From TrEMBL:
SUPFAM superfamilies: (Trans)glycosidases. This is alpha-L-fucosidase. It holds the Pfam family Alpha_L_fucos. Residues 315-678 form the Glycoside hydrolase family 29 N-terminal domain. One of its GO terms (biological process) is fucose metabolic process. Alpha-L-fucosidase is responsible for hydrolyzing the alpha-1,6-linked fucose joined to the reducing-end N-acetylglucosamine of the carbohydrate moieties of glycoproteins. Its EC number is 3.2.1.51. It comes from the Eukaryota. It is an enzyme of class 3 (hydrolase). GO terms for molecular function: alpha-L-fucosidase activity. Belongs to the glycosyl hydrolase 29 family. Keywords: Glycosidase, Hydrolase, Signal.
């Protein structure tokens, strides 16, 4: 059987490949990561391996990534033949120093659920150096899938085939403009237990040729306009490998070929040496063809030809699902509110820091003592006695004070652009009308209200700009119909690991069977419960984002194909599905949990976390002063946005529908700051050169629009001066200001090519709060 191989969003931009120079790494290969059968290769300490997609022997096949970079293709090279590098501080010297714009590699880490960090060091011919952080994701994942740039449909263990997908990721790192690269030194990550970084291929993007050039052209399935006026969005990556800044009226990007024509050109106002920007061009036309991409700057046009591209908005089929991406509205929205609410808000307990666990997992922890590290079982016994069952909490889940208008008004006041509510958590209690799939819902028990419908209607009526999303757990812990699909997240080596068993729970003290109230017998959980409920949320409730959780067995691909086609053609909407719906094909954005990154990620991501230190559901054990405050909210948001992320921040209402006051106060206070600084947050992109500068003197993040760069200090500038070592794209005549404060315009600044210095003054600094945003406005 042929291994399924997916080069995600490959641009096939062959016109640019001449400037992409694959490096020969054969002499450094020290590990065999691909195999033709289980146990043949040992990518990691467990003797697991990638499946052999191709059996080439000569190492001369190529792979072009979605960002337009050409590599020697990773793959199987023969029995006992190494095909990748375990990073151990190797120095890779070039045959001769050469100018290059960027360095790119294909990589992964080899321990499940372990993201490994390390620095790549670049040495130039003048003996100067620069570094780039390599953040390497695990090569396979379960429940939440971080989709790579190359995806395989399986991997091999030491003795069998595992049909979870495996992945290889890409990193592109900026190099010092104008300098000749002499050598690359890889990180040192050799601990097989904690995880190692593997490198499969590397490439340079040369600086020779036109100073400003096109790296890749990617026709997306995004669009602008409605009906017959609809045009396709094409993403074009433009690099400045020269020594002069693009400035003034800037650069115009257009596309032409056969019946493909530009409707709205892309524009880049400022692009300085060593920088890269992705610009959107809208076009009409369809079919496979070559196109000319024209860059017009100061009355001079340069043209780059790209072949074998396919244009046109097409219906979604099983063959093209991976081309779906996060919608533009989601990319621009940046900030959403997560709401975890259900019967678990009645016990509302997860212990307190440093012993806290998720309160919404109350039922599972009390019935799984090996996984209970926070004392859930003891709390249940001493508080409720031995005879209580989880479903007894339904009666006190009243929602008596639930006011959907208050909720959506508060979300808007916080500055959020969307929200996601738990329509059903792992306990199987649905907060919406689930029809004949189950009676275990808020319409039949507890509130006896359609909680989701009321919230969505309130948003449409009172805050229509808010996008509406639905969290949905694919499995149900103790639903017996889930039994044929039940699973443990880990094997017997981790008996305390989470499980979704699909067997009726037993009271941990009496051993009696606990009821599964509202259960309706069905033939197949996926076909008769999971998929119909997903369809209800999509069509009857008009959700704009399906935020899955615990993606194991599923019917996601067929559901997504139909929903995406219907949303675009019948409603003109672009909707989203996250990374937890159980398949690598349907996966618009990554979803790290209570985590952020230290570098910008090209692939869109959204971190979810609670205002509670470590719980999503309401936890009565959390003191008021431990909830996230406004300063932490603001700085967390800015940090994530600077790295191409969104923040999905959770609140946990009580059983009666009231929200803890510390959460309300912090959200509204942060909302005041966000409103005054929104141009530095929303509708921005990350900066290719740097996401952050963090040292003993400063702690800043960068965001940008086409007209400005925003330098946000997460700490109060000392002495009224902000000094940042970064290649800020500023020219004489540009304006520098401090956003959100009176008299913050026209500040004194200097830039010596290395350090950007702004004189704020103590008085202006004192007028600020939470974070200080310096705007560099491109004037000249």
């Amino acid at each position: 059987m042929r291994t399924w191989f997916l080069a995600v969003a490959t641009s096939a931009s062959y016109g640019a490949v001449a400037r992409s120079i694959p490096l020969d790494l054969d002499a450094h290969f020290n590990n065999q990561g691909f195999g033709t059968y289980p146990g043949e290769s040992a990518f990691n300490a467990l003797n697991e391996s990638y499946p052999a997609f191709t059996s080439y022997q000569h190492g001369n096949e190529t792979f072009v990534s979605g960002s337009g970079i050409q590599y020697v293709a990773p793959g199987y090279r023969g029995a006992s033949t190494p095909d990748n590098i375990i990073c151990a501080g190797q120095r890779i010297a070039l045959e001769k120093p050469r100018r290059a714009f960027a360095f790119s590699i294909l990589h992964s880490s080899d321990v499940r659920k372990k993201t490994i960090l390390g620095n790549i060091t670049f040495t130039y011919s003048d003996n100067s150096t620069s570094t780039a952080e390599l953040r390497s994701e695990p090569w396979w994942a379960f429940l939440a899938i971080n989709r790579g740039d190359i995806v395989y449909d399986k991997f091999y263990t030491h003795n069998t085939t595992n049909f979870n997908s495996s992945h290889i990721f890409e990193l592109e790192a900026a190099l010092a403009p104008g300098k000749e690269l002499a050598a690359i030194t890889l990180p040192n990550t050799t601990n097989a237990t904690t995880g190692r970084i593997h490198v499969f291929a590397a490439s340079l993007w040369e600086s020779d040729g036109p100073s400003v050039g096109v790296q890749s052209v990617k026709p997306t399935q995004k669009w602008i306009g409605d009906g017959d006026a609809r045009s396709q969005v094409v993403e074009v990556i433009v690099n400045n490998g020269g020594m002069e800044c693009v400035h003034g009226e800037g650069l115009t990007v257009s596309i032409k070929g056969n019946d493909v024509k530009t409707i709205e050109p892309g524009r880049i106002r400022r692009l300085c040496p060593g920088d890269q920007k992705s610009v959107q061009v809208s076009v009409t036309g369809s079919g496979a063809c070559a196109v000319d991409v024209s860059l017009l700057y100061q009355n001079t046009t340069t043209t780059h030809t790209f072949s074998d591209l396919t244009f046109g908005l097409t219906n979604w089929t099983d063959a093209n699902l991976a081309a779906h991406e996060s919608p533009q509205w989601f990319d621009d929205a940046k900030f959403g509110i997560f709401i975890h609410w259900g019967p678990y808000a009645v016990p509302a307990w997860g212990n307190s820091t440093p012993y806290e666990s998720y309160a919404e997992w109350f039922w599972w922890y009390t019935t799984h003592p090996l996984g209970d590290k926070s004392g859930f079982r003891d709390y249940r016994l001493r508080t409720y006695g031995p005879d209580l069952n989880y479903d007894d909490f339904f009666a006190n889940f009243t929602a008596a004070q639930y006011d959907p208008k208050d909720w959506v008004d508060m979300i808007a006041d916080a500055g959020a652009k969307y929200f996601v509510i738990t329509t059903k958590h792992h306990d199987g209690f649905a907060m919406f009308d689930a029809g004949n799939t189950t009676n275990r819902t808020s319409l039949h028990y507890g509130p006896r209200r359609d909680v989701v419908r009321e919230l969505f209607d309130a948003a449409k009526t009172y805050q229509p700009s808010l996008k509406r999303g639905t969290y949905f757990s694919l499995p149900e812990w103790f639903n017996p119909a889930w039994g044929p699909y039940g699973f443990a997240q880990y094997g017997p080596e981790n008996p305390g690991g989470t499980t979704h068993p699909g067997i009726i729970a037993r009271n941990p003290f009496t051993n009696a069977t606990e009821p599964y109230t509202g259960f309706i017998p069905v033939d197949d959980f996926v076909q008769d419960v999971m998929t119909p409920q997903m369809e209800m949320l999509a069509y009857a409730y008009d959700t704009e984002m399906l935020w899955c959780d615990a993606g194991a067995a599923n019917g996601t691909a067929a559901f997504a194909r139909q929903w995406w086609n219907w949303a675009r053609e019948a409603q003109g909407r672009d909707v989203a599905i996250n990374s937890r719906c159980g398949t690598a094909l349907v996966n618009d954005f990554d979803t790290p949990e209570y985590a952020t990154f230290s570098t910008a990620q090209r692939r869109k991501w959204e971190s979810n976390m609670g205002m509670d230190p470590f719980s999503y559901g309401y936890n009565r054990a959390t003191p008021d002063d431990e909830y996230m405050n406004a300063t932490t909210l603001v700085t967390t948001l800015v940090d994530m946005v600077s790295k191409n992320g969104n923040l999905l921040l959770n609140i946990g209402p009580r059983a009666d529908g009231t929200i803890p006051q510390p959460e309300i106060d912090a959200l509204r206070e942060a909302g005041v700051w966000i409103a005054a600084h929104e141009e530095a947050v929303f509708n921005t992109t990350y900066w290719f050169q740097k996401a952050e500068v963090r040292d003993e003197k400063v702690n800043v993040r960068f965001t940008q629009t086409d007209d400005a760069l925003y330098v946000t200090s997460l700490e109060e500038p000392v002495g009224g001066v902000l000094e940042v070592r970064a290649p800020v794209p500023i020219l004489e005549g540009d304006q520098v200001s401090l956003l959100g404060v009176e008299d913050g315009e026209a500040l004194e600044w200097s830039f010596d090519g290395d350090v950007f210095r702004v004189v704020l003054g103590d008085a202006l600094v004192r007028r600020g709060k939470h974070a200080w945003v310096v705007k560099v406005e491109y004037v000249v």
